[in-house]
What does this fold into?
Amino acid sequence: MSQFFQMHPDNPQPRLAKQAVEILRSGGLIAYPTDSGYALGCCLGQKREIERMRTIRRVDSKHNFTLLCGDLSAVGEFAKVNNAYYRLLKAATPGAFTFILSATREVPRQMMHPKKRTIGIRVPSNPIAHSILEQLGEPLISTTLIAPNETDPFYDPWEIRQMFEHQLDLIIDGGWVAPEPTTVIDLTEDIPQLLRKGGGDWTPFIPDEI
It folds into this structure.
């Protein structure tokens, strides 16, 4: 049975963020709030936890996981991005975006798309997610928590507890979170491609998109 923390959505308690990091570093899989619903997360290099995420989400090896970053300092290590795109990323983060970028060799094979060799990058604005990332000191492997055969992410931590308390090591209650998905933009080519319209303003990347 998972642990269940109630963290303040605006001023998260540092001691609880530290406990969450301890669970992550011991090989734990957590559910936590972001700025677009709840997500699953584990530390880099945790192959078993990646497979647990696939099992919960019921997705195959083609599923694109995301690197959740506290800021853009880690992007150069894990993704290839030119100067023009980096300036756009800097202006748009933190926020409700997922950027698809070409992955570097530092990205675990299990995380990237097996054929395209791409990785999603997110810098969330949610204070709880930020407090965990700050204490962890590295990105989280992450994926949006969506029930099988559903399209919207979970936004109610108590519903997550009812459904997944025996499958997770920690559920963080950060209150009700708007379920609007992130805007997903593919930056692997010379021209950005809008893959999904969500919470972020995509017009700086694709001004002609209606």
